[in-house]
Fold this protein.
Amino acid sequence: FVFAVAAQFFYVAAQSGIFSFFINYMTTEVPAIPASWRTGITDAWFEAGKQGGVILSDKGAAYLASLGFVCFLAGRFSGTAILKRFSPHKVLALYGILNVFACLLVVLKLGWLSVGCVFMSYFFMSIMFPTIFALGIHGLGERAKKASAFIVMAIMGGAIVPKFMGGVGDHYGMSRAFIVPLVCFGFVAFYGYNWPNFSTSKADSPLQR
């Protein structure tokens, strides 16, 4: 339970940071865009860059944010099916590791590959909140109600840690700022991998039927 509170804190911190700075990243870190893309209905999606060329505008980045949430939704639906077939703590650990890898590729500034990894982070973070919650209260019996309140309160991570992500972004660029959610997802993966050792319950793993 204690580690679940911490894992939820860091997960919501990572999620809020990525959601909050998505537009900042897309308008400053996306590679050069061909001017031919700036035609017709997509004209408002782009604007002239300060160093020449064409970059995404705030409006264009906002539209791409919608695509990110489509990835999040796809991850939630597919993850629900996966969680019924495999141990939830193992899925959580795997998704956490994959998100660490995705954030690392963003930090390394690998062009369009890094941009794609931002969307993949949406996909892999989708199942984390409910899975951490279920693992955290598993086997607590009558104490589950009070425990669930503490796990929900851990969302305060979303109000604290993104400030650090913004600070890193101000000094080193938004790509480098993804080191903050990378660390957060690392803790989530650590929790998922070690959940059997943390849990004192002898019951079967939750969610899996």
Remarks:
- The beta strands are 46-48, 54-56.
- The first strand starts at residue 46 and ends at 48.
- Residues 2-28 form the longest helix (27 residues).
- The mean pLDDT is 88.
